[in-house]
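Structure in, sequence out. Go:
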């Protein structure tokens, strides 16, 4: 490209636009290839340091599974659900490789509340010895049982912590086999598993104290009732007056008859009154005059 541009310049062609366009194209390619270059450089260092290899059981960016393939730019990871994850090297933040050198089978066993701790430790050691003699597991257990003591207490039950050193990727198989054998031995010896327990204490009271208490409660209740009644009396509202009964038809007719009878008796008396009495007072007054 440089030779072509130089030849065109010798021929008298203006190569300034060509140089500007080439610069823009180079800048775009540089930005676009930045991630690609980062993936390649990171992949080269990972392969050189032997951080990953095919068939390794690893955890990358929260995905746990087996490495199925590696390239200069990506890693193919098959998780426990069978999903294939293709992760670029530039996106890898951390690598947890569980396939190197050895594994650790860590067990935490809850001891029953009523079982002595020494008997529990003896039971664990006998179970570990029997497991190491198992033809299927003895090749994967690389150390005797390491008893680390009581880790803590959960709801009154001690938690024993112990571990084996195992072959790579076999720590989970060894842990499951140990738990199965321990459960079988506990069932054979009729030992219950450590379960939460609740203790309840009850106190008995004497009859005299109960009577005194009941009498006090009764007097208090009566006092409260009298106090509440005395407080409620001033707040009582007067009862509203009852409406007058409505007269019946018979009573109305009786009243009308009585009125008519009274008026009929008053008229004859007024008509039968003598005229002299009516004018008695005026004549008397005139005579005096």
């Amino acid at each position: 490209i440089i030779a072509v541009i130089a030849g065109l310049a010798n021929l008298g062609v203006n190569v300034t636009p060509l140089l500007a366009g080439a610069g823009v194209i180079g800048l775009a390619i540089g930005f676009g290839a930045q991630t690609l270059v980062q993936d390649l450089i990171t992949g080269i260092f990972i392969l050189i340091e032997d951080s990953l290899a095919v068939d390794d059981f690893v955890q990358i960016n929260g995905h746990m599974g087996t490495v199925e393939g590696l390239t200069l730019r990506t890693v193919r990871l098959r998780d426990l659900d069978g999903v294939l994850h293709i992760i670029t090297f530039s996106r890898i933040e951390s690598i947890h490789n569980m396939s190197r050198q050895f594994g650790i089978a860590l067990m935490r066993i809850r001891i029953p509340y009523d079982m002595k701790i020494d008997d529990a430790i003896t039971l664990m050691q006998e179970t570990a010895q029997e497991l190491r003699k198992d033809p299927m597991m003895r090749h994967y257990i690389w150390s005797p049982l390491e008893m680390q003591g009581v880790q803590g207490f959960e709801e009154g039950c001690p938690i024993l912590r112990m571990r084996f050193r195992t072959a790579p990727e076999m720590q989970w198989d060894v842990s499951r086999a140990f738990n199965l054998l321990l459960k079988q031995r506990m069932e054979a010896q009729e030992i219950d598993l450590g379960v939460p327990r609740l203790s309840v204490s009850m106190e008995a009271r004497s009859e005299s104290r109960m009577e005194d208490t009941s009498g006090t409660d009764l007097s208090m209740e009566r006092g409260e009732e009298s106090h509440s009644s005395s407080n409620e009396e001033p707040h009582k509202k007067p009862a509203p007056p009852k409406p007058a009964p409505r007269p019946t038809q018979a009573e109305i007719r009786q009243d009308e008859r009585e009125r008519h009878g009274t008026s009929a008796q008053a008229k004859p008396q007024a008509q039968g009154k003598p005229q002299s009495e009516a004018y008695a007072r005026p004549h008397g007054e005139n005579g005096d005059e």
